[in-house]
Amino acid sequence: MTMRLVGCLLVLLLVVSCKGGNRAVEAVHRGPGVPAYGDALIVGSIGEPSTLLPLLASDTASLDVAGNIYNGLVKYDKNLQLVGDLAKSWDVSPDGLAITFHLRQGVKWHDGVEFTSHDVLYTYRVTIDPKTPTAYAEDFKQVKTATAPDRYTFRVTYAKPFAPALASWGMNILPAHLLEGKDITKSELARHPIGTGPYRFKEWVAGQKIVLESFHDCFEGRPYIDRYIYRIIPDSSTMYMELKAGGIDMMDLTPVQYARQTDTAEFVRRFNKYRYPASAYTYLGYNLRNPLFADKRVRQALTSAISKDEIVHGVLLGLGQVAKGPYKPGTWAYDPAIRDFDYNPARAKALLAEAGWQTGGDGTLRKNGQPFQFTILTNQGNEQRLKAAQIIQRRLAKIGIEVKIRVLEWASLLTNFIDKRNFDALLMGWTIPPDPDLFDVWDSSKTGPKELNFIGYKNSEVDRLIEAGRRTFDIEKRKRCYYRIQEIFADEQPYTFLYVPDALPVVNARFRGIVPAPAGIGYNFIKWYVPKEEQVN
Amino acid sequence: MLNYLLKRLIMMIPLLLGITLITFAVIRLAPGEPVQAQTAMSPKITAETRQRLREYYGLDKPLHVQYLTWLGRVARLDFGRSFAPDNRPVLDKIKERIPVTLGLNLIALVLEFGLAIPIGVFAATHRDSLYDKGITLFVFLGFAVPTFWLALLLMYFFGVKLGWLPISGLHSLGSDRLPALARYLDLAKHLLLPVSVATFGSLAGLSRYMRSNMLEVIRQDYITTARAKGLAERTVIYRHALRNALLPVITLLGFSLPGLIGGSVIFETIFAIPGMGQLFYQGVMARDYPLVMGILVIGAFLTLIGNLLADISYALADPRIRHGQEG
């Protein structure tokens, strides 16, 4: 009996480990079908939302779910341009100091009460209230006065023109009639939110799922998909198996899954894969307080000695592109003509020689008898960053620079190294927000403790350009500022900008109406549909 | 016996205090704090906002004040509110997760002991036979194979390839609309893989332990006597030997008690089971001090109770111990 069990297990292991199973299924071309109401989209989420009051949340899972429940006054459209959301339109006063929002009329909260300018005023007030534990007060603190002259008008004035201000009004507006006069941190709405968005809250089973259902009175029209279900699946391999088994309809693939594991005929028949640049970049940042990196020629040499193409191919399997600056290629602030240091080890050596670094007898670079060596720190749990660091290590070794790599737990990396400015070089990433303002990461006033210009970059021209860029609403003027900043970065190389990865979402092929755009695929979710004959849930 | 029990219970108080003090210190020594976990690398956060958040959570007060405040509340059985943005009472969060972990581990525990004891006895009575060797190989496979690997393999085979079993979670979508029987069947299907993996993984240790206990007992004189008296082999093994061989296993059962609510991070993560392991892991990663402390204190309390129960049952099972204590 037991022997039989052992036998069965061995056979099972054998069967499973064989890479068979390419059931030959012809890829079927699916027509657009007829839009119909119904079905459910099941999405896998690695983390569980912490609260559905977006004002208090800072994690992606919470903000993702809340994004379907609430609206802001403005939002980004498919081309990442600001358009009205709860606001029909807005005017900026000629001096750039006042913004007047004209709100939509007849918008309903999920409980049937009408949305008015009072809700906006409440949201503004609760956000800047010192008792509210929120991370989003900063932009609103620039506001001098906020008024609601009538039910459908909301006006704010600023002490100075502030271009990123407009985007800050994309913040989710909360229902004043349910929250005013109450302690927001203990509100029931954290678990049972009421918004104005296309989906309303149905249920939350802790650790398992959150179910939203379509809001038929939504001001943008009733969404075709009836339910939006978030399943919490903390492990990405499990999530991928759930996708294949039909347990979820949509997830983000890794480069390996996208390039190598999803090219079977069956997968192609059942799913549509999408690919577009993600709003993020990865960089190697140098601690500019360290004398080793003080000379710009050394930083130029380091960038010249690193093959960014090799990293894009080795780490992302080609599913991404080389980064040359802090902006996403294809967006208005990105300068496509920027000239970067391409891979050229000979030039690297020449630049280093100019800076006084000579190759010693053992092949290592030395200056005043000291070898050129430094440590790259990166965070634990990001395989791509570790691989990129290893590729860099190998390339730099070829020109005589010894690089050590240390991988640290996130909190430890922040507390013991970044906050204390105790590092040589960091391999990390930033998300690229739609507004190109660079103040927080690049301005020389932001080099203080715990601030984000932790490499200590200081350049008065860049400071001036950042300031000019955020003080005008004129896109052409802003563009000139940001183009010039990119030129300066390309010359000074405070970071070696490495790559912009691709976002690789996959969606079950029964969902139609998905049109990829610079904003990704989710921007028109309420227009997605499943033809009646293919609906399953 | 009552005296002994009372003494043991009173002894638990300083022990628990010591545990809370050490865990409190250890969590605070770990780099990072809740405010940082929530706000790190966000351009929107200024030093002022960070300070405001620290005050909100009471993290600006000296450590001993924080500890005493916490202790005072715990004495009134109030474990405080989670530092996560939902700000829910820690006890509510724990209550939500305990039934899942408890249920799952209880089933696994029953299966484990239910299988390991007969396997161990069988292996001992058929020592060095082909059966014994086969069993050894089988249980050691379970011991050697990493849980996550086995879990993924089984999920792929039964879930993706054959489509017989659900891959993760506890319920199918829409199962709440099913009749009661179908709902239980759905839950059972979801539990099949996780329970099998959990049981298989710990079968080796326990069955080997049972086997060696049994072998030791069989060699004792009173077993030889029993045999010499002409008792049937079944009676010798199952009535005389098994009872004594089971004694040390009872202690193990007591030790398993805290494990019942502790949950396992890897296991719960892979099968997307919302249990205590997951909750604890999330709490630690977010430096959610009240949640972590709450779980640890409850865990420590149960460990102590588990030890006590093991001792008591041991004493009940073996008169020599009982008399020893009283004498």
Automatic annotation (TrEMBL), chain A:
The keyword Signal applies. PROSITE patterns: PROKAR_LIPOPROTEIN (PS51257). Keywords: Signal. InterPro entries: Peptide/Ni-bd (IPR030678), SBP_5 (IPR039424), SBP_5_dom (IPR000914). Residues 82-437 form the Solute-binding protein family domain. Belongs to the bacterial solute-binding protein 5 family. This is Peptide-binding protein. It comes from Geotalea uraniireducens.
Automatic annotation (TrEMBL), chain B:
Keywords: Cell membrane, Membrane, Transmembrane, Transmembrane helix, Transport. Residues 98-310 form the ABC transmembrane type-1 domain. The chain crosses the membrane at residues 102-123, 135-158, 245-271, 291-310. The keyword Calcium does not apply. Its main location: membrane. Gene3D superfamilies: MetI-like. It holds the Pfam family BPD_transp_1_N. It is a multi-pass membrane protein. It is found in: Cell membrane. PANTHER family: INNER MEMBRANE ABC TRANSPORTER (PTHR30465), OLIGOPEPTIDE TRANSPORT SYSTEM PERMEASE PROTEIN APPB (PTHR30465:SF0). Belongs to the binding-protein-dependent transport system permease family. This is Peptide ABC transporter permease. It comes from Geotalea uraniireducens.
